[in-house]
Amino acid sequence: MSQTALPLRAVVFDLDGTLLDTAPDFVFVLNRLREEEGLPPLDATLIRNTVSDGARALVTLGFELQEDEEGFEPLRLRLLELYSEHLAVKSGLFPGIAGLLEFLQQQGLAWGIATNKPELYTTPLLAALGLQPDCVICPDHVSERKPHAESLLLAARLLDCKPQQILYVGDHQRDIACGINAGSPTVAAAYGYVHKDDDVNLWQADHIVRQPEDLLPLVRQYIG
Question: Quick one: which of 45, 50, 16, 23 has its CA closest to 170?
Fold first, then answer.
């Protein structure tokens, strides 16, 4: 496990399922696509638990198709088209996150995002919600996606600090692996889009939070 003796300089978040609850928009979009294909809606919980795995996983969930099967790619592209039209309708910060971001600003600490969500969707989503992170790392900005450390190493450069001074929060095992690989202390967001078969305790995160409101007390511990 990563732990830092250096002063905390920033908190960096994964996006979907960690900073933002974007599942309601994905539920709408996937079920709209299923409606277009003459299928009944899926249970919202099934969709929610798949959001962090991306558009391909949602197509597989919604249509029982694998990426190499005929018909998969047109469905993926249509899903993304629908999402681009509906990406900030019902999405918003998880409870307690707005207070955490305000606290970080008051303390002179930076905050950022390191996500596997493409910039094409990340930028307009953040703009629609009026969020202005100190750095945003998308797959477009790195050669290796998470769980590779590159996203957090780039974040550290942009925030002018060491990776050990970044607290990284994510709701997927690859987020925690990214943090560990970068040498950053990590927080598993167990409140996020975690598959029912996943055991967050096995991710080797430094901390586990069950509610987003628990993040602020944890950050307070880091800054003393």
Answer: 16
